[in-house]
Design goal:
The complex is a heterodimer of chains A (about 150) and B (about 525). Chain A has about 150 residues and is an all-alpha fold. In chain A, about 55% of the residues lie in helices and about 0% in strands. The longest helix of chain A is centred in the middle third of the chain and has 15 residues. Chain B has about 525 residues and is α/β, with parallel strands linked by helices. Chain B has eleven helices and 16 strands. In chain B, the strands form three sheets. In chain B, strands 1, 2, 5, 6, 7, 8 and 16 form a seven-stranded mixed sheet that branches. In chain B, β7 and β8 form a beta hairpin. In chain B, α1 runs parallel beside α6. Classes of the chains: A mainly alpha (about 150), B alpha/beta (about 525). At the A-B interface, α6 and α8 of A face α5, β4, α8 and α9 of B.
């Protein structure tokens, strides 16, 4: 069974809704929200070892909401979200982390942040040498190394 | 039964590799057993687009989260600091920050200088040749001449200061406080077959470039060429003894899970400050009812972690973020005892250059400084790529109630009882941590940082596993003698961080390996009467 099938349709709906509450789309920054279909698909495809915790978080969220999160009015939804984050413990933290880790590897998001769309290896990065003259005052200090008499 | 070997080493990490390489010149039959396997750099996190996500799962620093077959579980529920390690050829050198300070001369004389803990039975000067040899073997970069640190001779130049280094340096100069480019085991030039650092940035969970020294690419290739045999996926359950009270060999599970007995003339334990007492306590017999080498009752006691007090903030200028090795500078300004500070002993400071976007988002959301909703994007852009961190590595003094025992329920995948940690942070350490945080805040504010957050302690910061089989000349107050041999079992040696008497205020791997080389040297000098 794939990870996508390990969440019920209702849980997937709530995951999408809460993801949009964490990170909504932005015209200003030209980025999708975390409810974007591609980002949601990434989350479901890579839940893996986090599946049980995310499912527990979504169960907790459902209990707090009493009905699908999307059907609550905005004020009530915000109230539920605050309570979820405050009382959700490890499962809620895991759900939020899953949302963030999938969002911040999306090409459109990385492009908006000015980051390259690649793994660190093999290209790496260039690191400037920096101003070593800053060390001159430290070099001028007398050497001191505490020793037993 | 397997053919007997002259020397059996348990563990292929930092100390096991060093002792194996050093003893190889004797041409004895040397076998090392490790519960893990050889690493595959092509699978390291930085080779994939999901490089940051892996840190929360398969490449977590916590064995309890990672849960690979090579890992054993650790019950650390009763400790505010969780154990982190790595199991495999290279051990925790595969997964470490490569920060490479040495213990100071004063660290070996805490009792004499400050009236606390105990003096070591050896001193810094005894270890100097082994520090130097180890620096050459591991390949160290750095700048000689630090006025507040022991003199070192790194064979490679220091890492560049990058963007973050000057921000820290300027702040430290304004405050008039010491700072210096760290010695690290990151190769800044091509070195002994290793390629130079290309700033993958995600150094801690293994270096795909091979620029960060881990013993699978430093000591082990040379040790194996010299004839040392290394068997992987072999988990040792217990050390057996004979009628003379000598170690006769070990029982282990091979890669197929089959129980084996490996006889040996000499057994060397190199399993770290948690794995070593676990093995000794699991090696109970009629002759050693309280665990092997435990007539002192000190096996597993005096566990020292180094509580890390971390403070970080965000500056207007861009920092190196994930585009550089995470550590590049240290400070020893508060290393030595000054009783006016309200505590004895001191701490080193390790500066952090920054973090990647996923780590930043997750950490900042958890701290409550990265909001949900429309303002998320603005705030994230203010934080991401602007982090500077200051960590005080506080000297943990030995206390017997901080200990490793065997968990009565928890077992590893072979049914071997798992270790249980009981640990509290002492009042002296608490005061030291508060002092470190206050100084760290001054540094960050001087650098112009805002949105300051703390981790006190860093919860998953139990990197340094020390003190649980301490060395000493008195068999009633120590587990091994001044050259690493068990007081109780004359052909049993311990070479890992367990033998530390005190912890100092710096990352210990350099000193652990220097001690392993020193013990190997002592063994070579005493081969004719090793068991006397």
């Amino acid at each position: 069974m794939s990870a996508a099938n390990e969440l019920t349709a209702a849980q997937r709906d709530d995951l999408r809704t809460v993801a949009a509450m964490i990170i909504p789309a932005s015209d200003e920054y030209k980025v999708p929200g975390a409810d974007d279909p591609a980002i949601q698909a990434d989350m479901l495809a890579t839940l893996g070892r986090d599946t049980a915790m995310v499912r527990a978080a979504l169960d907790h969220l459902a209990r707090l909401a009493g009905k699908p999160l999307a059907e609550l009015d905005a004020a009530r939804r915000d109230e539920v979200a605050r309570e979820f984050r405050a009382t959700g413990g490890g499962p809620a933290a895991t759900l939020v982390r899953v949302v963030l880790q999938c969002y911040y590897r999306d090409d459109r998001v990385l492009r908006s942040l000015g980051l390259e769309l690649r793994a660190p290896f093999p290209k790496g990065h260039v690191l400037e040498e920096g101003d070593w003259s800053l060390l001159d005052p430290v070099k001028a200090r007398p050497a001191k190394l505490r020793r037993a008499p | 039964m397997n053919d007997p070997v002259d020397v059996l080493i348990i563990g292929a990490g930092a100390s096991g590799a060093a002792v194996a390489w050093s003893l190889a010149e004797t041409k004895m039959h040397i076998l090392c057993l490790d519960q893990g396997g050889w690493m595959k750099p092509s699978e390291y996190p930085s080779t994939g687009r999901d490089w940051e996500a892996k840190f929360y799962g398969d490449w977590s620093t916590s064995p309890n989260i990672r849960g690979r077959p090579e890992d054993y579980p650790i019950n650390d529920d009763n400790s505010p600091i969780k154990v982190v390690n790595f199991n495999g050829v290279g051990g925790s050198t595969v997964m470490y920050t490569a920060h490479w300070p040495r213990l100071h001369p004063s660290d070996f004389k805490a009792k004499t200088l400050d009236g606390v803990a105990d003096d070591w039975p050896i001193d810094y000067d005894t270890l100097v040749p082994f520090f130097e040899e180890n620096d050459r073997m591991m390949g160290v970069s750095g700048l000689s001449g630090d006025p507040l640190s022991p003199l070192t001779h790194p064979p490679m130049p220091p890492q560049p200061l990058g963007l973050s280094g000057p921000l820290i340096g300027k702040a430290m100069n304004k405050l008039g406080w010491h700072w210096w480019p760290s010695d690290t085991t990151v190769a800044t030039m091509d070195y002994e077959g290793r390629a130079r650092c290309i700033n993958l940035g995600h150094c801690t969970p293994a270096c795909a470039q091979g620029a960060k020294a881990s013993t699978d690419i430093t000591y082990w290739p040379q040790a194996i060429r010299s004839g040392v045999e290394l068997k992987t996926h072999c988990r040792v359950r217990e050390i057996l003894t004979n009628e003379h009270g000598m170690a006769s060999g070990v029982v282990y599970y091979d890669k197929d899970g089959v129980e084996q007995f490996q006889p040996a003339e000499v057994v060397i334990i190199a399993c770290n400050g948690v794995g070593t007492p676990r093995l000794l306590l699991n090696s109970v017999s009629g002759r050693f009812p309280n665990g092997l080498a435990n007539s002192s009752g000190l096996v597993g006691k005096n566990l020292m972690f180094h509580p890390y007090a971390q403070i970080y903030g965000f500056v207007k200028e861009p920092t190196d973020s994930n585009r550089a090795p995470p550590t590049c500078l240290w400070s020893k300004e508060f290393y030595d005892t000054d009783l006016s500070r309200g505590f004895v002993r001191g701490y080193g400071i390790q500066f952090g250059r920054g973090a990647g976007p996923v780590f930043e988002a997750v950490a900042s959301e958890q701290k409550g400084i990265l909001p949900w909703g429309a303002d998320h994007h603005r705030v994230f852009r203010k934080l991401n790529g602007h982090r500077l961190a200051v960590s005080a590595i506080c000297e943990d003094l030995p206390e017997e109630h901080n200990r490793v025992t065997l968990d009565p329920v928890l077992k590893d995948s072979h049914g071997i009882p798992a270790p249980k940690i009981d640990y509290t942070i002492s009042e002296n350490s608490r005061k030291m941590m508060e002092h470190g945080l206050a100084r760290g805040r001054e540094i960050l504010e001087t650098a112009g940082a805002t949105d300051i957050c703390i981790n006190n302690p860093i919860p998953w910061g139990g990197w340094h596993l020390l003190g649980t089989a301490r060395m000493g000349t008195d068999p009633a107050r120590s587990v091994v003698n001044e050259w690493g041999r068990s007081h109780d079992v004359k052909n049993l040696f311990i070479v890992d961080g367990s033998v530390f008497v005190t912890s100092g205020g710096v990352n210990p791997t350099s000193t652990i390996q220097a001690i392993a080389l020193y013990v190997a040297d002592q063994m070579k000098q005493r081969l004719a009467n090793l068991f006397d």
